[in-house]
Amino acid sequence: MGDRIAIRTCPLCEAGCGLEISVRDNTVVRIRGDMNDVFSKGYICPKGSTLKQLHEDPDRLRQPMVKRNGTHVAVSWEEAWAEVDRGLSAVIATHGRESVGAYLGNPGAHNLSAMTFNRVVLTAIGSRQRFSASSVDQIPKQVSAGFMFGTPVSVPVPDLDRTDLLLMLGANPYASNGSLATAPDWPGRLEGIRARGGRIIVVDPRRSRTAESADEWLAIRPGTDALFLAALINAVFAAGRADVGAHLADHINGLDDVKHTLAEFTPEVVERVVGIDATTIRRIALELCDTAHAAVYGRIGTCTVSFGTTASWLVDVLNAVTGNLDVVGGAMFPLPVAASPTTRGKRGIGKGFKTGRGKTRVRGFPEALGEYPAALMAEEITTPGSGQIRAMVVLGGNPVLSTPNSQQLDDAFASLDFMVSVDIYLNETSRLANVILPPPSHLYRSHYDLALLNFGMRSVANYSEPVFELPPGVPDEWEILAKLAAIAQGLGAGADPATVDEVTIRSIIEATVRDETCVIAGRNPDEIYDALSGPANGSLRGPDRILDLTLRIGPFGEGFGANPEGVSVAMLKRHPHGVDYGAMVPRVPEVLRTPTGKIELAPAELLVDLPRLRASLNDDPDAMLLVGRRHLRSNNSWMHNIRVLVKGKPRCTLQIHPDDAVRLGVVDGSPVRITSRVGSVVAPAEITDGIRPRVVSLPHGWGHDVAGTRQGVAHEFAGVNSNVLTDHEAIDPLSGNAVLNGIPVSLVAATA
Ligand SMILES: Nc1nc2c(c(=O)[nH]1)N[C@H]1C(S)=C(S)[C@@H](COP(=O)(O)OP(=O)(O)OC[C@H]3O[C@@H](n4cnc5c(=O)[nH]c(N)nc54)[C@H](O)[C@@H]3O)O[C@H]1N2
Ligand SMILES: Nc1nc2c(c(=O)[nH]1)N[C@H]1C(S)=C(S)[C@@H](COP(=O)(O)OP(=O)(O)OC[C@H]3O[C@@H](n4cnc5c(=O)[nH]c(N)nc54)[C@H](O)[C@@H]3O)O[C@H]1N2
Ligand code: SF4
Ligand SMILES: [Mo]
Q1: Which pLDDT belongs to residue 751?
Q2: Pocket of ligand 2 (CB under 6 A)
Q3: Which of 109, 126, 421, 471 would suit a FRET pair with 176, their CA atoms being 20 to 30 Å apart?
Q4: What is the pLDDT of residue 41?
Q5: 190 and 153 belong to one structural domain
């Protein structure tokens, strides 16, 4: 029998590459890049093909696990649900709904079930104790975008394919494949900039692979990007070159405020702490003004730092004042195909964005995007009092490795009355759960990148059908989430996920037809329901049905008859390689959702942190600081059980400059003890001049040698957990994001 070819989008990272999967006798024989994918055109990284190994990994859970006498045993779904019902109901009955916390992990952003049903679980739990990987990642960018442009997904992305100068801070797309700027083959797109005679400047304390391939590498001191950006903006004003462009002139507030509030941050004032000289800062400021198509882009190294929100804000201010915001080849607003906050509602104006609608129980830290800082999860669990978290629901996350002060969180989770993890592995976090509910392998699920395409460099849409049909009795991930929601709501272990699905879609339809700006405003909800659910539309259910609605009311949507050629799930099924509606287009003012209908260049909510920025000018430039890094063959903490991805040279090493190594008496490969305010680990030294002196780098997502997990390969290549060192007290005050880069540490040579 010949091989069957299945086409699907890779769910592992933000690049969203098209995969061509050859299947023979219900087995994957090969995975390669889909040459016909409208966006990725055959590009794939080494992780993409390992969906086969992930699918076949014997350690990947196929059955629910329940902890009995301290060890996890496989049980039937019925037993697992009964256990969840007992555990959750008891905590809710005794301590109330506020005592149930939830943590949502990163893979949920790449997962259609999670994108559509995680919120159903949260609503059913009905507690404000919500945490997610967002606050160890991108929430600063969402907060700054929210205040500037009106929604937390109004994030400008660099128009890589048409820019001639890219200033990139704290990102290493050669390893990460890009983030909050969705496009496959970032490396190829960067090489394209240079091939057309453009320039790339990389700002990074490490000479990353991306820095190596750039025209210029600026080895900034960790945590000082906000000062660097402030000085660049200052220099643009000082040169009399600030010009937002005629296209923005009528749509912007706060230009003078920016000029005045940043007047003190001259290149000469910041150079000592930032570690980049004033002449270079002034030169780059002018280059950004002089180049017709230039873009500034910042990612992890500008977000997961003490001034994450300020740096994220200043990236867009710099784009604006150099005339590069919302222009081709600059930083542009994506136009996602599925309806999103930037396309829904009234065009050009909105309610705007707020934080602080709630405060954490223990220290009164303000909410952002409906959640609290992951760094503060532990204290909410361990501090007694009304509202203390006594149960946790963890959805596709591994916070014991991924969030600050891991040991503290590990202890806190261990002290809970009840914990449930929806996870494919028994790992460092799920080992602490009373019940683990495993979704099926990714190849059993449909897919659409509902979240990441909000940041797409082109308006593309790809829908993937499941590669394999789910065996009977095995629930899809959305069914697990729907049932968990039903149980949290008090409907019991016998509740039917289909009922939750029905209630959910009905309420989404009701809200949609009530929205007078929507293409289906005022339509009969039953008619819309039938159009989505009927046999003529493939009898869609679950996430596919919600997706179909979202696509059909989007800017390119079928509109329930309004635009018969438009996009829908059915239409995308006819186009397995995706549909491409083109490159980004200028979107101001239509994209804005601020109450003024203008871009707010100097929101009061962001200016409040400037005194702290000023104070940081006095920081000791000689302090030893720890930063992280990513590797192309890792994916945060959870792909280390795939042997082809971890074999070879050990990767969990401490990169250290030769001068520091000599001073400490450390040779290549010898163990170094790294100690921070909260913890201490030992890792082998990797001596390299590709790092700034007085900076060391350790990757995150390692430390797989804890007891009680079931990840044989990861255990063999354990490494150490860098988040034992990161400090839960170090939080960006504007967003609640954890500081994961620029951690003060001390080093000593350890004995082997
Ligand atoms: N020091 C330091 N720490 C960091 C970072 C850093 O740069 N430095 N980066 C941070 C960033 S950017 C992020 S996003 C976070 C990530 O933080 P987390 O999301 O908490 O961690 P992951 O390692 O992504 O863990 C994902 C979990 O989901 C499970 N999983 C995988 N696929 C699925 C699925 O389809 N369904 C379900 N239900 N589960 C699944 C995996 O087994 C794993 O347990 O880590 C952060 N931590
Ligand atoms: N292979 C692989 N791909 C991934 C992931 C993965 O774990 N592995 N994770 C995915 C996720 S969840 C995310 S969020 C994205 C992240 O994507 P990126 O933002 O590209 O993340 P990194 O590759 O960690 O690159 C961050 C860079 O910032 C530098 N840096 C550290 N501190 C500072 C600082 O203070 N200032 C400046 N300017 N630079 C600093 C680091 O040295 C590092 O080179 O990657 C995604 N893609
Ligand atoms: S770059 Fe990302 S999406 Fe593309 S194959 Fe690799 S892991 Fe998958
Ligand atoms: Mo992330």
Answers
A1: 82
A2: 13-14, 106, 137, 169-173, 175-177, 179, 203-206, 208, 220, 222-223, 225, 299-301, 305, 627-630, 632, 634-636, 741-742
A3: 421
A4: 98
A5: yes
| Surface-to-core class of residue 63, CB atoms within 10 Å of its CB (0-12 exposed, 13-18 middle, 19+ buried) | middle
Can you tell me which atom of ligand 1 is nearest the CA of 179?
12
Range of the domain at 679: 622-749
Ligand nearest to the CA of residue 171, numbered in listed order: 2
- Residue 445 within any structural domain of the chain: no
237-259 pLDDT, tens digit per residue, is 999 999 999 999 999 999 999 99
| pTM, to two decimals | 0.98
Q: How far apart are CA 650 and CA 671, in angstroms?
A: 13
| Same domain, yes or no: 629 and 606 | no
For the chain, the maximum distance between any two Cα atoms, rounded to a whole number of angstroms, is 75
Residues 642 and 668 both lie in one domain? yes
**CA nearest to 327, candidates 441, 245, 221:** 245
| Contact of 170 with 203, CB cutoff 8 Å | yes
The rounded distance, in Å, linking the Cα atoms of 124 and 503 is 12
Q: Are residues 303 and 175 in the same domain?
A: yes
- Inside any domain, residue 420: no
Could you give the number of structural domains in the chain?
Answer: 3
Domain assignment present for residue 153? The answer is yes
Whether residue 598 is found in the same domain as residue 678: no
Exposed e or buried b for every residue in 435-457, given b needs 16+ CB within 10 A?
bbbbbbbbbbbbbbbbbbbbbbb
pLDDT of 708:
97
Closest residue by Cα to atom 5, ligand 3, is 48
User: 455-480: per-residue pLDDT in tens?
Assistant: 999 999 999 999 999 999 999 999 99
Q: Say if residue 206 is in the same domain as residue 312.
A: yes
**For the residues 170-197, what does the mean pLDDT come to?**
98
Q: Are residues 300 and 252 in the same domain?
A: yes
Ligand 1 atom 21, closest CA: 398
CATH number for the domain that contains residue 306: 3.40.228.10
Q: Is the CB of 645 under 6 A from ligand 3?
A: no
- The answer to whether residue 663 sits within a structural domain is yes
Supply the pLDDT for residue 108.
97
pLDDT at 186 over 90: yes
What count of other Cβ atoms lies within 10 Å of the Cβ of residue 611? 9
pLDDT value for 2: 75
What pLDDT was estimated at residue 1? 58
Q: Within 6 Å (CB) of ligand 1, which residues are found?
A: 105-107, 111, 133, 136-137, 300, 304, 395-399, 402, 422-425, 427, 439, 442, 477, 628, 636-638, 700-701, 722-723, 726, 740
